[in-house]
Amino acid sequence: MNYADLFRVTLPETALEVAALVVLIVDLGFLRKAALKVRVTVAALLGVAGCGAALWALQFQGSNWFTLIDSLDYPSLLTGNYIQVSQTGILVLTALTLLLLIDSDFTRHVGEFVAVVLMAASGGLLVAGAQDILVIFVGLELLSLGLYIMTAFAKSSGKSAEAALKYYLFGGMSAAFLLFGFSYFYGLTGSTNLSVIQKVIADQGTSPLFYVAWVLVVAGLGFKVAAVPFHLWAPDTYEGAPTPAAAFIASVSKLASFTLLITLLQTWMTFHGTFDLGKSDFDKLLFSFDQTWLPLTTILLIVAAASMVVGNLAALVQVSVRRLLAYSAIAHAGYILLGIAVFKMYTGHESWIIEIQNPVIASQKAVLYYILTYGLTTIGAFGVVSVVERATGSDRLDSFLGLHKRNPLLAAVLLVLFLSLAGIPPLVGFWAKFNLFAVVLGVSAGPIPFALVALAVALSAVSLYYYLQVLKRAYVMHAIDESPIKAHPVTMAVLLFIAAAVVILGCFPALLQNWIASFYPVT
User: Fold this and answer.
1) How does pLDDT run across 158-205, given as a tens digit for each residue?
2) Which regions of 227-322 does DSSP assign to beta strands (E)?
3) What angle do CA 68, 58, 22 make, to 5 degrees?
4) Which residues of 264-280 are buried (b: 16+ CB within 10 A; e: fewer)?
5) Taking the domains of the chain in order of start, what are their residue ranges?
6) Is the dihedral of CA 502, 506, 512, 513 positive or negative?
7) pLDDT digits over 252-294, tens only?
């Protein structure tokens, strides 16, 4: 990959960095003495414009995904396929997060905050397209450092400082695990490129150090997605961080991190190329390959099951809606990991190989569908919590008492979003879970996948209970204070847009499914 190709591939990241600089220049150079509301509005809109420019730049990246499969070129960054789906989602979710900032007053340094958000988003874009462990680590650090700063941005809040400190300490430990694991992979293979690492391991076989390296990488990435037992930072961070920061962490950060997991599993658990073998010989090769990766798949399934159980059961006893959403996020991470753990991609030119490939591509699409819809819904949920918190001074369950009388539109948005998170039809959350669970059963037959899907369905029913606890207070229980709760027009418009999208995508699930499928070739 030459420098012209590198510049073309990184056009979206460049657009975000330029937008961050423009925001700083405008805010600090021209609007320093303007009213805070004006500065917040201008900075947020410039940030949204930067996301729009990055979305436009995505169209000029092209696709070098499939040229890689049949060539000896191993670039550090890829475009197309699931990567472009993820990058588009990152930019859209970032724009929605910035729009929620317009009604915020937790800091006077709004230009700096928007710039940090945009730079963190550019780190997420790098993570989504990275095919080299050095690029992965740089992208993750750019994303993570931005998240730590955003969490601590509410300087007048002790909870914000405490959450940022815990987040930073846990994040530093996870980065050490991840870098240590990557160093082992480099030591074993002599390369930092994911495809070369896979090729060397396939040719030379595995060693105990290989499994140690993989466990370290899983531990590092488990922190990023808040999977059990690496989830301890999430409740305090979701509770203490400013609302836009918490929404960004719950949506954009998770989307980038899960995309990285897809990249690692698809690259390292995949055969690429043409094989001059008969079907019986190839079956033996696949069996040997499966045995190599079976312990690692088992680790992911255990983490997925633990996340589902701990997340849903811990959410039952929460009195803070922010912490409830944190444990809900842990549970959803378990559902997504269940889908990711069944990836076994074998690509080639024989029809009998394609028959194996197609169901797993369906699994990949289902995971992307779940992550995108969950991120969208979560941003809306944090937006509703933010409005209520500003009006009542608290995010506790009782703060939502009588919400349907104090702001009927806000209560309706809350109803749609929480029922979608619980997986109630015909909302988009139902289709996200249905598609994921159906594909898991279709790709991996056997009692273990069936038992895990059954567990996930049962725990989804448990999640409905704690979501209904919030809705019960909003619609059934009477408020002590029945004064109206007002939301900023832009915030209300964003929340209504998200709720409408959740309903429309639920009634017409093929809209998003077909859009995701459009980035894949027809086989």
Assistant:
1) 889 999 999 999 999 999 999 999 999 999 888 888 888 877 877 777
2) 270-271
3) 135
4) bbbbbbbbbeeeeeeee
5) 269-523
6) positive
7) 999 999 999 888 877 765 554 444 445 555 555 454 555 566 7
